[in-house]
Amino acid sequence: MPASDPDNCLDCLVIGAGPAGLAAALYLARFKRRFLVIDAGEPRAAWIPTSHNIPFFERGISGREILARERAHACHYGAEIVEGKVVRLAKRSDGSFHAWIEPTGAGQGKSFEVAARHVLLATGADDIEPDLPDVRDAVRRGLVRYCPICDGYEAQHKAVAVIGHGDRGLGEAAFVARTYSRDVTLLTLGAPMDLNGEEWELAKRYGVKVVEEPVGELRVEGDRIAAVRLQSGAEHRFDVIYSALGLKLRSDLAVTLGAKHDEAGALIVDEHNRTSVDGLYAAGAVVRGLDQIVVAMGHAAVAATDIHNHCALPT
Question: Contact 264/247 with Cβ under 8 angstroms?
Fold first, then answer.
């Protein structure tokens, strides 16, 4: 699609094919818009073994199943999804966007360019993996969970560990302790805790045990880390381990264009999910706010509807 040809200018380019990007694709397809979805690879949602707080799936549904169903639904209405990575995004003098895309799928073709009147950024985020001995990609592998809002209910009354430090780590440990379990341990992996008196009182109030000693060895049983042996030799056994080390947001494309963001890189949007860059929208984990699949889908619905309302009538 020659980006220089105004007749080939898309109504919207959707960057990302996770829950937000695919929900936007469904809406845009049913609005009869001209759009393209760029899928850079396996989204973070694919790591979810089972989620029990997606409406209509009372018995739970895996992240991969969510993505497969969403993709099939959008494609049923004609959505076009291309495997590739947007390596550069620029705004032109006429207000449209110009994207340079490198294919990443099987039988990769040549790089190509796309022009679009609007862009919806649904690129998501990556969890910061904990530095655990002899275990790589623990979050990706499901050995360490990353969302007690999503599945803390299943961890109630169990022995829970939270990997983290500072007020972020303590905040998540306290959330689990006050909501689901009174047996919560905060593992700092050797990082010292720098908390004030009020924060230590919070830990005491909810019975959060703080372990600052480095971890020397792990015991993996099946799909979970069952025991943590400290360097001193002391062993702690857990039923569930969460990571509270934060996210690395994939917001670079928007930030480079000058979109407003917070100190973590999360994009600031208005009630229509517009960023501060005219024509650039954002949805999902890349947006400042609650990081949840149903929220991401809601962002996408709002953004896609506003994009449709700002386009000429579909032909």
Answer: yes
- Quick one: CA dihedral 64, 66, 72, 75, positive or negative? negative
Q: Which uninterrupted H or E stretch holds 177? A: helix 166-179
Structure tokens at 222: 């099946």
What are 131's two structure tokens?
A: 């530095």
CB 7 within 8 A of CB 34: no
Pairing state between β 224-230 and 215-221: antiparallel
CB 147, CB 229: distance < 8 Å:
no
Q: In this structure, what are the phi and psi dihedrals at residue 173, rounded to the nearest 5 degrees?
A: -65, -40
CB–CB of 303/24 below 8 Å?
A: yes
Domains of the chain in sequence order: 6-126+247-309 (3.50.50.60), 129-243 (3.50.50.60)
Half-sphere exposure of 17 (CA within 13 A, CB side): 25
Q: How far is CA 246 from the centre of its chain?
A: 11
pLDDT of the residue at 3? 45
Residue 258 amino acid letter: G
DSSP element (H, E) containing 64: helix 63-76
Contact criterion met (CB below 8 Å) for 116 and 97: yes
Distance CA 221, CA 143 (A): 9
Assign 2 a pLDDT band (cuts: 50, 70, 90): very low
Please state the pTM of the whole predicted model: 0.92
Reading the block at residue 141, the tokens are 């592998």
* pLDDT bucket at 278, cuts 50 / 70 / 90: very high
